[in-house]
Prior knowledge:
Elements lengths: L1 E4 L4 E5 L16 E3 L27 E10 L8 E6 L6 E5 L2 E6 L6 E4 L9 E10 L17 E6 L2 E15 L3 E12 L5 E10 L5 E2 L11 E8 L3 E12 L12 E9 L2 E10 L4 E4 L3 E4 L2 E2 L2 E6 L12 H13 L4 E4 L6 H10 L2 E5 L17 H16 L5 E8 L7 H17 L5 E5 L12 H5 L3 E5 L5 H7 L5 E6 L4 H10 L3 E6 L14 E3 L28 H9 L6 E6 L8 E3 L7 E2 L11 E8 L3 E6 L2 E7 L7 E7 L4 E7 L11 E6 L6 E6 L3 E2 L6 E9 L12 E8 L1 E7 L13 E3 L4 E8 L4 E8 L6 E7 L1
Parallel strand pairs: 22-23, 22-29, 23-24, 24-25, 25-26, 26-27, 27-28, 28-29, 41-48
Antiparallel strand pairs: 1-10, 2-3, 2-4, 4-9, 5-8, 5-10, 6-7, 6-9, 11-12, 12-16, 13-14, 13-15, 13-17, 17-18, 19-20, 20-21, 30-32, 31-33, 31-34, 34-37, 35-36, 35-38, 38-39, 40-42, 42-46, 43-45, 43-47, 44-46, 47-48
Amino acid sequence: MQRRRFDQEWRFHLGDIAEGRWREPDDSTWRLVDLPHDWSIELERDPANPSGSAGGYFPMGLGWYRKTFAAPEAWRGKRVRIEFEGVYMNAEAWLNGHLLGRHPYGYTSFWYDLTPYLDVGATNVLKVMVDNACQVNSRWYSGSGIYRHVWLMVAEPVHVGQWGIYVTTPEVSPEGALVRVRTTVENEAEGTHEVIIRSRIVAADSAWVSSHGTPHWRGGLAEARAAIGPAGRHECSQDVQVARPQFWSPDTPHLYHVETEVLVEDRIVDTATTAFGIRSLHFDAQAGFLLNGQPLKLKGGCVHHDDGVFGAASYDRAEERKVELLKASGFNAVRCAHNPPAPAFLDACDRLGMLVIDEAFDCWRDGKNPYDYHVSFDDWWQRDLDSMLYRDRNHPSVILWSIGNELVERGQPEGAQMARLLAEHVRAVDPTRPVIAAINGFGNAVPWSRADETFAALDVGGYNYQWGQYRPDHEQHPQRMMIGTESTPREAFDHWMSVLELDCVLGDFVWTSLDYLGEAGIGRVVFEGEQEPFLGRYPWHQANCGDLDLCGFKRPQSYYRDVLWQAGANVYIAVHAPVPEGQTPVLTYWGWPDVWPDWTWPGREGQPFQVDVYAACEQVELFLNGRSLGVQPASRQERFIATFQVPYEAGVLKAVGYTDGRTRPQRPVAECQVRTVGAPARIRLTPDRSTIQAGPGDLSFVTVEIVDGEGLVHPHAGHTVFFTLKGEGIIAAVGSGDPLSIEGYRGNQRKAYRGRCLVVVKSRGTPGEIHLRAQADGLDGAEVVIRAT
Length: 789
């Protein structure tokens, strides 16, 4: 099957076209765009926008896409399909004026057969209407448009079905693994055809693997034959033994591939390549979670679908970078909240080694917003669940299927009945992974035990913010396995200690690992006595609760998590920002104190500052300009935090961590320091990659820092930085971690937030050099060269 991206040169019109459904509109004045495309991130936020604080005050609306393409004569007699990885939302598609279908859910992939309406040898017009006008339909930023890839697939009449290859490893040991390949072949030709299906296992080094595990080029082949009638389909199952397999795990993400060939009359009519991993999963309330026979606690974080400064637009490199950032911060697992992710995200999890909870829905029949998924649930749940299961079932990174999040019906008999229905359907499609759902509490008026019947329908219980229920539930239900599917940063200590102490608690997933758009200000700091709504008023538009901010920069709670996860003996200095006189800061439930590694407070000499030191050490000594300010314990009893009151004095604040005993030892094991910085002097540019691919859409994320004469980032610098670019690239996005910024994410300038911002460069599609220059008033500029090859 030929499968190629269909992303380039679409025409786009924002707004409705009354006759667009039954007549081909004139698109000569429409804007030319490449996919993925999110029109909401391009537009101006406004407090009057109906999306409100949940959607970050972004405009949504309705839009049209149109693409003209030629169907060559080579396609005659073949089957042509179109696959959409994700369209938000209520997509309707037409080919040459013929309705292909409607797809309400904005997060599942779907496809149409173009063959009946295709004009071979002529020009064809594909038209897509996207309707995100009914607000509010999401509890977070959804974005709007064809925000993931589109694929065009051309196949012979006899071919592998859509998502028709299913690879499992039912028997795994160090000596050998049984790889089972199930292949569904469809016959859309006239008459019955004798079909040969061949499957070959290929290792990462491209060598074929025989049943004895030795690489060679003439063996290791499983072959099956079948007669398939017209409009028929056949699934064959083939077993291949692999000796001495390389296991897939977060530390060793080894991938194999299945090469599939379909033959009719000794002619190859279709081929496919499917990545998979050899690994075993075992879940047990007494032993915990075992991966390849080894116990593993899930150091998890929840991840929304957006890519920060790109909004919902899903670029492969942006998805990959998310996984890289999370791995670098110690995460070994993510939960896709609350919908199936982009395929590129799962591909990156496979390659880089990240475990995944793949989640289907945020609601069932009872909705949380007027226009959310509940309006389509009864008609679409099975098709959307199948889309997730069949599309994602070969990813070794996926270890759990989640059928929902914080379901309104969770404590009702009909909710338990629905949980059983969905869970049984999941097990029928893929029995190799457990089923989970994320269950939240009911408040004080309703006992937690009300959810027991729903939990009974699941294989693993997902607990949202309920760490206090772990022990009593284990006593009542000793066979129940639990995962903290959501937890807050402020309760990180309690959640993680429960994970360490209880084998039945398999892991914890913080809300959230990466910051995201929408649910504006859910993690903000307010002041006592203020009448504040649950979410932040405009211009709040970021959630502000992520361990990493919207640009991927680590926030203080991420360093505290490093300490909890005991990522070596380390210390981190967190200085509380000054509070206006007479006011008392109050954290929202998802908030973190307003602390930063900042010792630059001119004009506040002598004023006391609270300094917290996060430490994976027994005790901490704090020094100011070489003078000891005393030793404080920082053990588990103190939640690994030592607190000092320090009068401000410019210079160097240094924390030294010690491990053995309560008296000061002679040998320090870790230290950290923050310094008073000088005046902002220049800009520093640091690309995450200096070489990118010349193909359209590859990205380089460039960190922009405002530094003093010694190269230290100035924590209070807020200069507006202007960007110019020459060569074979464009400025694709700009952004910062400022949750209150009123700036857009498209353009050539951005105001620094705490001395930093981000600019993303995208290749044009041709090789060459890309010269990016940054300038700001009063600062020395900087330039960096990125090569597209």
